[in-house]
Amino acid sequence: MAPAVRHEAMRAGNLAVVLGELDRHGPLTRAALAENTGLTKTTVSKLVGDLIEAGMAVESGAVRDGERGRPGVAVRLSGHRVAALGLEINVDYLAACVVDLSRSVRVLRTQAVDNRAASPQEVIAGLRDLGAAMLDEAAGLGLTVAGCVVALPGPVDRLTGSVHSAPNLGWKDVAVTGALALPVPVLVDNEANLAALGELWFGSGASLGDFLHVSGEIGIGAGLVVDGALFRGAHGFAGELGHVVVSPDGPACRCGGTGCLERYAGQDALVPPGQGINDLVRRLQAGDPGAAEACARAGAALGVALTTAVNLVDPDTIVLGGIFAPLYPWVSGPAAEAMRARLGQMRAHVPTLAVSRVGGDAATLGAAGQVIQRVIADPGAYLDLTAGGTLG
Amino acid sequence: MAPAVRHEAMRAGNLAVVLGELDRHGPLTRAALAENTGLTKTTVSKLVGDLIEAGMAVESGAVRDGERGRPGVAVRLSGHRVAALGLEINVDYLAACVVDLSRSVRVLRTQAVDNRAASPQEVIAGLRDLGAAMLDEAAGLGLTVAGCVVALPGPVDRLTGSVHSAPNLGWKDVAVTGALALPVPVLVDNEANLAALGELWFGSGASLGDFLHVSGEIGIGAGLVVDGALFRGAHGFAGELGHVVVSPDGPACRCGGTGCLERYAGQDALVPPGQGINDLVRRLQAGDPGAAEACARAGAALGVALTTAVNLVDPDTIVLGGIFAPLYPWVSGPAAEAMRARLGQMRAHVPTLAVSRVGGDAATLGAAGQVIQRVIADPGAYLDLTAGGTLG
DNA sequence: GATATTTAGTCCACAACATAGACTAAATCG
DNA sequence: CGATTTAGTCTATGTTGTGGACTAAATATC
Description:
The structure is a homodimer.
Chain A: H1 7-24, E1 28-29, H2 30-37, H3 41-53, E2 57-63, E3 72-77, E4 82-89, E5 93-100, E6 105-112, H4 120-140, E7 144-152, E8 156-157, E9 162-166, E10 171-175, H5 176-180, E11 186-190, H6 191-202, E12 211-216, E13 220-226, E14 229-231, H7 262-265, H8 267-270, H9 277-285, H10 289-313, E15 317-322, H11 328-343, E16 352-355, H12 362-377, H13 383-387
Parallel strand pairs in A: 4-7, 7-11, 12-15, 15-16
Antiparallel strand pairs in A: 1-3, 2-3, 4-5, 5-6, 8-9, 9-10, 12-13, 13-14
Chain B binds a DNA duplex (30 and 30 nucleotides) through helix 1 and helix 3.
Protein name (chains A, B): ROK family transcriptional regulator
Pfam family, one (chains A, B): MarR_2
GO molecular function (chains A, B): DNA-binding transcription factor activity
């Protein structure tokens, strides 16, 4: 049920309206904010005052809109006080970043580690060290970290902060949030979900409407962004594109099914064991016809799965990330062709394919971005956090 | 952007909180409402007073909770004043219903007409007559109709109230809202979407969480309900289950693709032309092995498509409606088996299959229910409508 | 260069709403 | 019958946004 609306909720709501407007439509004067939000100038002035005091907004010089009249003072999001920590555990690396309220990446670090060889406890200990170092660094920059999100390659229970099963890591029933023990609130989330959000906030997402972001790795995941928010499904396991059935009589998959997309377009289907995607790209660039053929087949299978996804979920755009980003020139054509052939007659608008603009850091950035998003959506909850903050 | 929160919005929000609580948790005393919503007794009393004055709530006798102390007065939704009109245009009938605020069906009427033989203008004129008759009848019952939703078998543009293309009706670019010209606000929506909502409000939906409702007819549509609201996708065309690819090399489909679910489990794939579903059911009940075999094949194909849907969209339950309701005993087994085989290993919870409890009226009822839902979600917008209302 | 005009931002009296707690009402318990 | 308990109302108060008057700072016009 929607919570009762009290006076404080009204206040919090309007703070969010003003901060959200600053976030979306750049620097604005108080007068313009009043115009855009429908609030009075008086109210906007008070709210902006509070945001500035909390270090979430700053004045940034006079602005003449060309017309006559007294010039206004531009107000914009401030990146000087509030920040977020993004962490990522993946098969062969740990990553961390600090992002400030204006979504500038202030620190970004990656550690190559073979996490399959280590126990979950060792991996989490390593992540804690990395996270703690990032928090120190953030403090050194004068930043107060509002929270932390951890990206994991597998389905997670966000309520308990634990992983039921992450086959790629070899994890089963690992409690992450508790074990991490960082001095900020911690949430965990699925890597594919966060990569989609990373694309939304740090890639081409702002110019996209609703989109489906495909994270091709060993498994193939997808994140669906609708109205600026993730669609998670009833249990948080939506977006398992890798196990969409491409051909019911196809080869057996590790999920127990047959003919899943993963068997046609996952990394293991494209690259012989021991090699990486870069090897494949090199062969493709050298003009190896067998490699091109394999990619075309994978692209066609991807196109079938995406057709199905479009029919069910109706995204506006489809962004290919992960291994499909470097393979885009060889994969996207056949995929788009399959979609056009199957969808073109029924739909006025067949979704466009696009490459991911964010590289391998999409999930890490999306993790931090999710905290920032939360702050912007409810600044009232974070005013205290930062009021007594560092220098300023 | 979320609208600015003004005083009136606070009021409207709390009215919705109270009315929503009454809707979900049955008759409650003012004290219990205060407890449940977090509002004070004073505030609840004022809000309840307004709701009673507007005819949206009534007091209904004293209540002793068994304990001692002064007994409270139970307050519940009132069905005596506010109502909604649901209309449906389908291939071979028109239907209409009047539903009151407490979601009781007050009038329900169906007219058998061959709408393929008539022009869209004639069909809409017929619907207008039916709708106007229902409005008269509602007025006779002392009901004020807050709005109307029209269910159509095809994708609609809800903003303009028009149908781009409804192949089953043979319609192309028909503006419905404008042509209908009823003296209440009119919206149009897709039949499969509304059938899902019909199941939510008039079937087993209340006990379900998030669910996918499959409407099998000549085409196969689906509506996904998440958090009590429809998931529509970017353009409102989500849920086209009928064109999910079951087998990429399968038979050609009228959509231009190949191997769509519709070709395996649509009405035309199960029943020879000229016959209806009832004929098939009769053969099945008589023990016709060929018919049972055909249903099993259709069920298996449905299971493959549903597996894909579960992977992408993660519903909690799947409700089979339309032609799959009478065929449930013969179709659900193979479908469930396919899903279990493909999903059981990965997922802790494989969605349950269930039969629709609402019959062919699901979409009509869902249409009216959507208006009721809107009133309950924002009673403030409808207070005036009913304040000067009929007798009382 | 002085004055009018225009736009930005602040100030102050006021209105809308929810709150807290005192108060009245109506039941059961002893 | 009085004590206790719970429901509901009443009154004074607090928080928040509003509207319009006011000040500030620019350009346009004469």
